[in-house]
Amino acid sequence: MLIKISAILLVGFLVFPLSYKEMLIKISAILLVGFLALAYEAIQPPPPRTCGSPGGPPITGPRIKLRDGRHLAYKEHGVPREVANKKIVFIHAFGSCKHDAVIALNLPQGLVEELGIYIVSFDRQGYGESDPDPHRTAKSIALDVEELADNLGLGPKFYVIGYSMGGQSVWGCLKYIPHRLAGATLLAPVVNYWWPSFPSNLSTMAYKLQPKQDQWAVRVFHYLPWLTYWWLSQKWFPTSSVVENNPAVFSPQDLQIISKMVPNSDIQSYVRQQGVSESIFRDGIVGFRTWEFDPLDLDNPFPNNESQVHLWHGDDDRLVPVILQRYIAQTLPWIQYHELKGAGHLFPHIQELPADIIKTQLLG
Ligand SMILES: *[C@@H]1O[C@H](CO)[C@@H](O)[C@H](O)[C@H]1NC(C)=O
After folding, report:
1. Residue 71: what are its φ and ψ, rounded to 5°?
2. Rounded CA gap, 249 and 218, in Å?
3. Any idea where the AB hydrolase-1 domain is (predicted)?
4. In the chain, what are the domains?
5. Which of 40, 103, 106, 324 has the fewest CB atoms within 10 Å, counting from its CB?
6. What is the rounded distance in angstroms from the CA atom of residue 170 to the CA atom of residue 150?
7. Would the CA dihedral through 33, 34, 40, 41 be positive or negative?
8. Atom 2 (ligand 1): residue with closest C-alpha?
9. Cα–Cα nearest to 339, from 193, 152, 186
10. Which amino acid residue places its CA nearest to atom 12 of ligand 1?
11. What is the 3-state secondary structure (H, E, C) of 305-325?
12. What's this model's pTM, rounded to 2 decimal places?
């Protein structure tokens, strides 16, 4: 369409006398400006439908107010926090919410009571009923976790457990609030291919293990974040497998786990109810852009062996290549690395694993 209009204008420009040419230049300029305005409009995300705002979703659960006025919605699991011995903050995955505290959901009640386990999960920024934070960084996310813990009176030290994209937030906690941590567990944490310490041959190899469409989506997050909304919303070509729920990124074990899941459409719509741009799309941008620090440069947060940092990963994870996780474990000898044979990205959903993961952290 645009090419046709340009061609007609060009022909007109060549054959008509000067006065027409001037008019044509004006028309072209107007069309160009109009086109750019339309293009710009098309790639702008609509503003988020903030919870509690007129026409926005209602507030149905408890929230705390953060230092900059944002709210963070949370949900408590396990024994009451007043009597708990072990306090854990759980950080959820991409496209998920506080209701999907996968570690809390499958814990045997006996274990919860025996160890006095309390778990709080929260809607990450822009998800569910937590306000969006367009300025979020690894640091601001860690400070949100700290504020949540302090607001709930969890004491000087607490555990953090993060799954998948939530694992990235755990790296931020290890960097910015290590003095507040009683221990940390990363479950299939998403890796950023641009962390500078990765040898480039290794990160390139891992990058190419992703389906082509995901290589592109990750490139957009990293290099062209302003294009993200358009890229992931358009229907002309495939976008991110994760955003599209493409089964190509799941291992046989993952597919088996998915086949047994009972989808809860209420929770699925709750996750994105404020809009996709400040929930899942922002998550991709924050995860894959250039970071303020390199997790591979971190120091041991527990130099006197007071506690441990555990990292669990499946050797058949098709979303987050295991070769990068192995490199991290090898580079940071203080990480307790647990590689699960035959496991994909969804292993925390396997019935008995949350108990193993929790016991390894709390009793290790
Ligand atoms: C990357 O290069 C280094 C040094 O040349 C080499 O030791 C390593 O095996 C290479 N890794 C891969 C995955 O090719």
Report:
1. -110, 145
2. 14
3. 88-350
4. 2-43 (no CATH), 63-363 (3.40.50.1820)
5. 40
6. 17
7. positive
8. 201
9. 186
10. 202
11. CCCCEEEEEECCCCCCCHHHH
12. 0.89
